[in-house]
């Protein structure tokens, strides 16, 4: 009887957890779409072969500072920082696939793949190294992978 109770409880807990995860994902996607309608797109959409990523660059000079937002944030996280950096050099921020103005990209969505996407985005946009990567939170991992594995 105890085993049966534990089994049922475990199944219900898994169902509740799955529903909570689905609700959280739905909330994030809805919030992104609402924010996108409220704010004008600042940059351009760059085609990466079947999906487009949003890139916003300003300023001139070298190196180019590449600003990457935290896990569920968009490039708007850098609204106060980017113009200050752009006073003295090139500054670019972007929305990873599925966030902000960027379209959903192919699976898998992991930091290694996102580092490759960032390199492809910068290449296709005509941005040139050297790059100074500025990654907030989760984006710090993407920056480390980019710096260690991507050759310019």
Characterization of the model:
With 152 residues, this protein is of the alpha/beta class. It folds into two domains: 1-38; 44-149, Alpha/Beta hydrolase fold, catalytic domain (Rossmann fold, 3-Layer(aba) Sandwich), CATH 3.40.50.1820. 45% of the residues lie in helices and 17% in strands. It is built from four helices and five strands; from the N terminus they run αβββαβαβα. The protein has helices spanning 2-38, 82-86, 111-124, 138-149; strands at 44-47, 52-58, 64-68, 91-95, 131-135. The protein has a five-stranded mixed beta sheet. Strand 3 (64-68), helix 2 and strand 4 (91-95) form a beta-alpha-beta unit. Helix 3 (111-124) packs across helix 4 (138-149). It is elongated. It starts with a helix and ends with a helix. The relative contact order is 0.15. The model has no long low-confidence stretch (mean pLDDT 89).
Provide the CATH top-level class of the largest domain.
Alpha Beta
Q: What proportion of the residues form beta strands (DSSP E)?
A: 15-25%
Shape field: elongated
Note the run of SSEs as H and E. Answer: HEEEHEHEH
Our count of domains comes out at: 2
Comma- or semicolon-separated keywords:
152 residues, alpha/beta, Rossmann fold, 2 domains, five-stranded mixed beta sheet, 5 strands, elongated
Short description:
With 152 residues, the chain is of the alpha/beta class. It contains four helices and five strands; from the N terminus they run H-E-E-E-H-E-H-E-H.
Question: How does the SSE layout of this entry go?
Answer:
Layout: H1 2-38, E1 44-47, E2 52-58, E3 64-68, H2 82-86, E4 91-95, H3 111-124, E5 131-135, H4 138-149
Parallel strand pairs: 3-4, 3-5
Antiparallel strand pairs: 1-2, 2-4
Helix pairs in contact: 3-4
